[in-house]
Amino acid sequence: MKTIFDKSVAGREGCWPCEGMAEEAYIPKDLLRDGDIGLPSASELDVVRHFTKLSQRNFGVDGNFYPLGSCTMKYNPKFTEVVAAMPGFTRLHPVLPQLQGAGGLCQGALEVMYETENLLAEVTGMAAYTLHPMAGAHGELTGVMLMAAYHKDRGNKKTKVIVPDSAHGTNPASAAIAGYDVVSVESVDGIVSPEALAEVLDDEVAGMMMTCPNTLGLFEKNLPEIVRMLRKVDALLYYDGANLNAVMGKMRVGDVGFDIVHLNLHKTFATPHGGGGPGSGPVGVSERLVPFLPISRVEKREDGQFRLNYNYPKSIGYVAPFYGNFGVYLKAYAYILRLGGTGLTRATENAVLAANYMRKRLSDHFEIPYDRICMHEFVASAAPQAKKGVHALDFAKGLLDKGHHAPTVYFPLIVPEAIMIEPTETENKKTLDTFCDDLIELAGLVDTNPEALTSAPVTLPVTRLDETRAARAMELTDDL
Amino acid sequence: MPFVPHTENEVREMLAVIGVDSVEDLFAEITEEMRPKSFELPEGLSEMDVLAKLEAMAAKNATDRTSFLGAGFYDHYIPAAVDALTMRGEFYTAYTPYQPEASQGTLQAIFEYQTAVTRLLGMECANASVYDGGTALYEALMMAVRKTKRRKIIVSEALNPIYRVMLGSYTRNLDIEFVTVPHKEGRTDIDGLKKAIDTDTAALLVQNPNFFGSINDFTDLFTACREAKAVSIVSAYPVLQTLLKTPGEMGADVAVAEGQSLGLPLSFGGPYLGIMTCTKKMVRQMPGRIVGRTVDSNDRTGYVLTLQAREQHIRRQKATSNICSNQSLCALRALVHMCALGELGLKRAARVSVERAHICAERLTAIDGVDMLTRGPFGNEFAVTLPVNAFEAIAKLTARGFVPGFPLGRYYEGLENGLLVACTEKTSEEQIGIFAEMLKGALK
């Protein structure tokens, strides 16, 4: 499909923001740019048609089942968009509460922050939250920075962070960027074993980053023992909350003994992914880490008024210019209000139910490396099919032809030919069955018509794309 | 129960297939020791009740004030087409485009966004991944540290102070040294910056227009930077970039910007968009998701995420950054905004904003005791000194329906009487007139 730049016609007028076209006289000529910018000149209808057509070349949850393991693509209710679009929120300038006495002008927004932090604290059993991190990985970095501040304050010499081999790739990246050496611990029967941990644990370990259930969809049942081991060397336990959808109401990481947790609000609390962002990655901490939280922090005074406090001498400082992705956590707040504690627990139960149902339905047709009760997702493997020349990627593309978004493939790295499926609680049984039927049918083609898989997809606007060429040719803009 | 579709019958059927008696059996591995000590959340509300509650909270925010607040975040007009198009579920409810054949809409949009912002800033490559203008600056300085293997960062004090404190937070545990070159009465001290560059310098960070609104040409400075083999980084203001000499024309290696002013509402601080662009030479240091054009098996044009070998899901702790999102919806908003306004519309917004600011500056400095603080050319924002503490003046005017600007004393010692004032094309001449009268009255 042509780009909007191809459709541009010099001189065609778009939607003007205002009347008048002031002179450039206010700025000296030698400070002005040369020539045209090269932005499109298109009519409003040109633009509307272009982007409507583009949207039709996309899968989204509103149109397709999206069982992406590790990503929690559940349905995003529509009423939260109404909330986020309320002018009382969208028109608020972020520096307003920093003006003297102007905190009074944004009491509603400050209350949203205060309430959201408290609700998240109750969901996870943490002492306090910051809403500032703007994505899950940003929350991870913030969490590791908190870890570093804690050890520095105690005079601890710590250089290492332990990350299980089943972790998200962002975990080791976040630890490294914050200045730590990353030590990997191998899973035993899919989970972290105290014995394997003991081999890498010493006094130089600042903390360990855990995901539970882990990326294999398995519950880390040794958690209490792992917590005791880490405490002995004054190491902190970090919880990657990407999989919180599996445990709401069933386990609170704070009660188990975690010190730091980040949540991906866009996953568990159902705010749209928007093609990958924006997200929101609040970080919760246990009591002993509260002094290090980023500034500002929102407080409720005795008279019921809310205010921002910047006076925390041990704080790690600013991780965001303001208060995080307000418009995103506003949606999460509305979602939690709508579901309440019972609704959140129910979401977890049904997410786990759906995953186990699909695991069972597929287990005669695919290898399931850890074929036992799983949490909200599970990993299948196409290793047997791969021996016959049909790989996980081919199944992914075959599913696209059937109208389903593909599961996550080739992750986690520790399962060869991984196909990681996460159905979530919002898909009905018919959808789950159709997906299973379709995937089983594809498995049947491995022996009868493998080309149907290796040449898929054929029903989409493009067939299989040449990724190697893209990296080599590096056409990154429309200027060639 | 909202958003869970299964009937009791279906649940029973599913449990039977799994081979367990109850849903609770699925959680057997969570022992008593690990169960919640409390889960005291409120009861769920109906959709109508949630909306009413949030409506009441929104009403407690005073969004009816006429505002001259800027400080890097501006209230520009957003065409209705931006909401209408970006709210389409196919864009809005999609994920990071891991399956390119099913995500050509998102991928082509990012490719077009990359094209638009590189043209706007006169640069060669862009990503669509960074959270905001501040984290974009941080990522840019990390690019420079990786590239040069040096540790000294030279920063102009006229660079947004909010961003400067962020940079400090992020690098606290790293072996990085900051040299901050003071501003000169609101001007970026180009000579001072030039003198500070040496062979240990990894990066030079400046802003155009700077925090006080002053416009500069950094060409010579960036040449000096290149000669020292340091990386030049500039933070720009995208709307004004339709008029101003581009970072590319000045020879910058990396140009970043806060993308909020391109179609994103102020929304109390987010979500915003970190625009990040660089030269081809720097592209492999750039974090985040980048889209490339390629062909499919039938030789048709298509788009994919590319240069992924730099990224965390492949390189883990050796990745260029931990960034995993791609800020796609915000980038889409910026793209649709630029397309809807078009080349001429965006220039018009910039020119009118600049004109209004100049009218405003003239009206304010006509008041006894109010002087220009910003020296030399400025765009749509400028600073004045008041005869009184700016915090106090702001409090008085805010109570009367005007938010007059940003108090420079919050970040700059000695500038307690300094007031930073911004206009956009939404600021009317009538509002400027009333504002000037109000300020005059408040200063009496």
Automatic annotation (TrEMBL), chain A:
It comes from Pseudodesulfovibrio portus. Its EC number is 1.4.4.2. It catalyses: N(6)-[(R)-lipoyl]-L-lysyl-[glycine-cleavage complex H protein] + glycine + H(+) = N(6)-[(R)-S(8)-aminomethyldihydrolipoyl]-L-lysyl-[glycine-cleavage complex H protein] + CO2. InterPro entries: GDC-P_C, GDC-P_N, GDC_P, PyrdxlP-dep_Trfase, PyrdxlP-dep_Trfase_major, PyrdxlP-dep_Trfase_small. Its cofactor is pyridoxal 5'-phosphate. Residues 347-444 form the Glycine dehydrogenase C-terminal domain. The gene is gcvPB. SUPFAM superfamilies: PLP-dependent transferases. The glycine cleavage system catalyzes the degradation of glycine. The P protein binds the alpha-amino group of glycine through its pyridoxal phosphate cofactor; CO(2) is released and the remaining methylamine moiety is then transferred to the lipoamide cofactor of the H protein. Residues 42-294 form the Glycine cleavage system P-protein N-terminal domain. This is glycine dehydrogenase (aminomethyl-transferring). Keywords: Oxidoreductase, Pyridoxal phosphate.
From TrEMBL, chain B:
The glycine cleavage system is composed of four proteins: P, T, L and H. In this organism, the P 'protein' is a heterodimer of two subunits. Belongs to the GcvP family. N-terminal subunit subfamily. It is an enzyme of class 1 (oxidoreductase). It catalyses: N(6)-[(R)-lipoyl]-L-lysyl-[glycine-cleavage complex H protein] + glycine + H(+) = N(6)-[(R)-S(8)-aminomethyldihydrolipoyl]-L-lysyl-[glycine-cleavage complex H protein] + CO2. Residues 3-433 form the Glycine cleavage system P-protein N-terminal domain. The keyword Oxidoreductase applies. NCBIfam families: PRK00451.1 (NF001696). It comes from Pseudodesulfovibrio portus. This is Probable glycine dehydrogenase (decarboxylating) subunit 1. The keyword Oxidoreductase applies. The glycine cleavage system catalyzes the degradation of glycine. The P protein binds the alpha-amino group of glycine through its pyridoxal phosphate cofactor; CO(2) is released and the remaining methylamine moiety is then transferred to the lipoamide cofactor of the H protein. Keywords: Oxidoreductase. It comes from the Bacteria. Its EC number is 1.4.4.2.
